[in-house]
Amino acid sequence: MEEEVGRETRNIEFKAAYTTLRERGNGLFDLVGKYVCGFLNSTEGGTLYFGVDDSGKVRGSLCSRGEEDKVRQIIDQSIRTIEPSVFPTSYRVHFCPVMEETGYLSDNLQVLEIEVYPTKSQGRLYDFKGHIYMRRDGSLQGPLKGREVQEWIRTYMETVTAAEHAGEPVGKQLHVLNMLLAAEQDKNKVLMQQVAAEREKNEALTKQLERLSQY
């Protein structure tokens, strides 16, 4: 029985799982850490689903009832790697059995749901394994470079301070912050393209000089 659960948004991410969740091991560990980190830094929270494809169709992940505890351990260990520390009350892990064509719930196909609750700013960005990740425009951004992180923090503090002085809800400023971060990332992309073009020119000039030196 094929079900749909909607579409991906900036607060919802789908991951189709083609192997058992337990066997994914480090892959599951890293994916959970990066996305949870990104949701925490958005301060709006979000939900990560394993066993749902990009179109929103429920496929299920191979995970028996007996393997749930092992998968929970992987998830908890991953989230404990995030700094600053994330309290267990900041997220929820839920296993939902998939309905089979027979109309009965499957014994080994489940959708794994990891819900991250909205958070208040900790005065710094969360990081996973020392790297900063953010959720923006429905995609995961990161790991962010030092310049991007510094710019984000500076802009965040300035925007929040201005909003507080104006008596505006701080949450409304998140959209502005995302736009500013996007602009900064676009600047970096243009700069990298310019550097690459300049490098190609230098390499071409070097080859030309080498040919001339042979005469």
TrEMBL record:
Keywords: Coiled coil. Gene3D superfamilies: Schlafen, AAA domain. It comes from Pomacea canaliculata. Residues 8-139 form the Schlafen AlbA-2 domain. PANTHER family: RRM DOMAIN-CONTAINING PROTEIN, SCHLAFEN. This is Schlafen AlbA-2 domain-containing protein. Pfam families: SLFN_AlbA_2. Residues 181-215 form a coiled coil. The keyword Aminoacyl-tRNA synthetase does not apply.
